[in-house]
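Input structure tokens:
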């Protein structure tokens, strides 16, 4: 959370470093800048350039207005995923709509695409604003509350892309013994990623990218419970 010490842009940069427990060297590596310049920025010996601001906005996924002017909150960037109202529900598998699968995204098999079968389908969502190529699964647990409710649903294209990660967006992350819904943030180590919860009671999780079997970017959030 933001404190009174974020009154200037340098204070806001220090806030981000403190929040992520980054040394000056780690901060420099994360941004891809010369480590010797970090102390010069922080002491005002070097001006904070537009290039540096843009790097911080992208790599830390923070609001430009907050970083530049101190307006609003750090994380006001719009999410790729959007919430939608309760759609129509159809139990006839041959009706129009996108399939909903009885697969919790907190635990399961190593390759979730293997579970997208007719046997695991429990219905379809008849909703005009959902892409027919998406699939829908239930999210369980409260780590993403209030963004994704316990028992709510997430819609995504069942195509994994680990090469072009949309940093700061919500993903279904598939690992060997579990799959979770989390924000995915950039790690200072390019071989790792940070999984972040919306619920502040949960700590961030650092995991090697090699342990991730698949990443599915969440397109829509449907916060209804027990709809099937």
């Amino acid at each position: 959370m933001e404190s009174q010490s974020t009154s200037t842009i340098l204070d806001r940069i220090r806030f981000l470093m403190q929040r992520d427990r980054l040394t000056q060297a780690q901060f420099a590596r994360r941004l891809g800048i010369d480590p010797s310049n970090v102390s010069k920025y922080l002491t005002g010996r070097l001006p904070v350039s537009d290039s540096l601001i843009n790097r911080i906005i992208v790599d830390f996924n923070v609001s430009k207005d907050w970083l530049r002017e101190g307006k609003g909150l750090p994380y006001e960037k719009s999410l790729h995923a959007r919430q939608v109202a309760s759609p129509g529900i159809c139990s006839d598998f041959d009706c129009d709509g996108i399939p909903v699968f009885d697969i919790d995204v907190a635990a399961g098999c190593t390759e979730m695409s293997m579970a997208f079968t007719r046997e695991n389908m429990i219905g379809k969502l008849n909703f005009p604003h959902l892409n027919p190529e998406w699939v829908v699964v239930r999210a369980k647990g409260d780590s993403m509350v209030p963004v994704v409710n316990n028992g709510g649903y997430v819609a995504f294209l069942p195509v994994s892309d680990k090469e072009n990660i949309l940093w700061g967006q919500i993903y279904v992350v598939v690992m060997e013994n579990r799959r979770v819904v989390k924000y995915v943030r950039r790690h200072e180590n390019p071989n790792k990623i940070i999984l972040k919860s919306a619920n502040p009671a949960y700590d961030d999780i650092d995991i090697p990218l090699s342990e991730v079997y698949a990443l599915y970017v969440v397109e829509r959030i449907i916060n209804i419970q027990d709809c099937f």
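The first helix runs from residue 9 to 19. Residues 1-5, 106-110 have pLDDT under 50 and may be disordered.
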